[in-house]
Design a protein that fits this description.
534 residues, Pyruvate-ferredoxin Oxidoreductase, domain 3, 4 domains, two-stranded antiparallel sheet, 26 helices, 56% helix, 10% strand
Length: 534
Amino acid sequence: MQANANLRPVSLLVCALGGEGGGVLAEWLIDTAIASDYPAQSTSVPGVAQRTGATSYYIEVFPKTNAELGGRRPVFGLNPVTGAIDALVSSELLETARQISNGYSTPERTLLITSSSRALTTAERMVPADGRYPNDKLLELVREFSREHYVFDMAEVARETGTVISAVLFGAIAASGVLPFTREACEATIRRGGRGVKASLKGFARAYDIVSTAREQGSLVQQLLELDGEPVAAMPLPAAVAAAFPSAVHDILALGYARLVDYQNESYAKRYTDRLARVLDAERKADPAGAQHYAITREMARYLALWMAFDDVVRVAYLKSRQARHLRVHEEVRAKPEDIVHIYDHFKPGVPEFAGLLPEFLAAPMLRWDRKRQRNGEEAWAMPLKIGSHTVTGTLMLRMMGGMRHLRGMGSRFRREQAMIDRWLDGVVNGTQTDWRVGHEIAQCGRLIKGYGETNERGKENLLHVLDHLAVSAQFDTPAARAQAIAEARRAALSDAEGKQLDAALQRHGAPARPIKEIPVRFVRRPAAAQGKA
């Protein structure tokens, strides 16, 4: 685990059905923690599921040994808290979905381990035909509400190895890396049990191999950089680029490089690596031994690629005109080869979208005109479009717009985005030179840049405000206090779209709240008929 000035217990929620050995698994986890000198605590909450009995076990493990704590004792929680679970482990797919619906798994934090096997509910059994809830929808929920997930048929592994699911779950948890336990320590715990040791070790080893292999394949990194639902195929890094960066960065760097070549060209991808080289140089000076495994450079490789490949009308048109997208739509609607599928894409570009492709001297008067309209109580100008992308005309329109990326570099939005990216980059470099923790927290603020339209603009404004008032101007007693303030502000911004929590976090640390933005108020005259009725 990475060093952190604000370590907290690792929280694990285990959900098992009756007879699956959930209690044994909880005991194994606590016994392993004690044997490895890690403080830990476990509680269980019995319950009734739709099939048999379902019990949840809540475990917290502090990622520092008692020897490292030097007599200090961490404070543990007794119950799981929604949105604050590091790992959710479940032996049955629908039970996993139930816990997700309770809010225990979040895409920002939770690693999710679940079985793809099902134990049918009473309601599913009562249907005269096939009443099973479709697995694909449950798996989609798993993908959407987890930062990382491992799904395999644990019931089948347990049958093949002659053990119960608890041993399989134990192996999956050990391989996931969520807890600071070694494989040897976990296997020693099973041996101390004295019953069914051989079968349990076999089930543990099979699950451990499945999850560790999935981790080695880098499936998480592949999901982090996607193009409209299509994974980016990593292209080989140029030899000069590969030589300039440590191997710990190559996997995500290759995906970022490929994304930007696809987005613009190789020259733009080189701009990406030149920016990353500045971060790497600062991190090497702050951490000469590489003890943090170049975590700042890895974070920047991810979020810098995402920001540099920002969505504009050119990008949207390019993605919607790709053949892979049409094939995916056909698959989603389950069309047969002889079926005719009509695809209509709806667009509503406004003045900001058109102005963003024009040079500043042309874009500025257009934006002033649109703002004036809104101040006068009129709606922002927009052009609703309905394009049949299954037609020759529609495809040509999308291809024509998607082929305009060579003009992107001359547009006013492109230049504004690059200027903001450079401000963030300077903040990361300067923060890293001050203290590694500060640079790491500023790099992670790249998570604030997401979505499009108002959401995207709000994220950039929040990032730059945090950068200007917490990373630079605010006074703190120590670099660790500055890093903590930046982390709190980032979490607040991600948890509240309105920004009230962010403003409160800023003010707690002596920074000003974000400026209040003007919002035009439109007064609409009531129709005469309505006035008469009133």
